[in-house]
Design a protein that fits this description.
Elements (H helix, E strand, L loop, with lengths): L2 H13 L4 E4 L5 E6 L6 E5 L2 E7 L1 E6 L2 E5 L3 E5 L3 E8 L6 E7 L2 H15 L10 E5 L2 H13 L3 H20 L4 H9 L5 H21 L2 H6 L8
Antiparallel strand pairs: 1-2, 2-9, 3-8, 4-7, 4-9, 5-6, 5-8, 7-10
Length: 225
């Protein structure tokens, strides 16, 4: 691992010292820790971005395979179910950070970007895409994790960091399609709207299986993260 990877893994490790899901001082940010690998496990993601700073997740949806690790993040603009494989061990835990999208914020930023460069959403909205952890994203993630350690810093600085993250993601070439996915537009719009309509029924099914009430209200429903 390089210096950045070591630093963010150390920060995430301190924020998630035990196995499982961990809430943070920022409601839209959650951290997950696993110390054993899994294979072909279902995982449901709401719109947001997944950073894996240590370990690896391989997420399969239809015929597409996405890798999330210290070099790649996963972005979802609509609710998506995956089958996942992970790399994790007690000596090298899987450490993942999930940041939820704020649709209103995304639209506000997208409209400003459009005013500046005249870009428009493509004909199809993406549901998920994998991107490279470039220098701006690495720097932002490190600052975000540091800010989560202190309540005062988090209260003052976190709104700006979350907005900056939205901006960096929407500046990507597929940014307009991400916005379209959040709006339920394009060819993926029916998928998004159908998932929203099925959420109450899914919540009921999870409740009947046990521990469903907790999972249904979390940002990422089934474990592992």
């Amino acid at each position: 691992m390089d210096e950045w990877s070591d630093q963010v893994a150390e920060l995430a490790d301190a924020l998630a010292p035990t196995v499982g899901h961990h809430a943070t001082l920022a409601p839209s940010v959650r951290i997950f820790r696993a110390e054993s690998a899994v294979s072909n496990i279902p995982k449901f993601l709401h719109p947001g971005v997944l950073f894996v700073v240590q370990g690896m997740e391989r997420l399969c949806c239809d015929v597409n395979v996405h890798i999330a690790d210290s070099d790649h993040f996963l972005l979802t603009s609509a609710p998506v179910e995956f089958r996942i494989d992970t790399e994790a061990a007690a000596a090298m835990p899987l450490l993942a950070i999930q940041v939820a999208f704020d649709p209103a914020m995304a639209m506000d930023i997208a409209q400003e970007i459009t005013r500046q460069d005249g870009s428009k959403a493509g004909p199809a909205a993406i549901c998920r895409t994998c991107g490279v952890m470039d220098t701006p994203l690495r720097d932002l993630l490190c600052r975000l994790l540091k800010t989560l350690r202190d309540p005062v810093s988090c209260r003052i600085l976190m709104p700006g960091l979350i907005r900056e993250l939205h901006f960096l993601l929407l500046q990507r070439h597929d940014g307009p399609a991400v916005v379209a996915g959040l709006q339920g537009e394009g060819t993926r719009g029916k998928v998004l709207n159908s998932c929203r309509a099925l959420e109450p029924e899914a919540d009921g099914n999870l409740d009947r299986r046990g521990c469903g009430r907790c999972r249904a209200r979390s940002f990422i429903l089934p474990q592992p993260f």
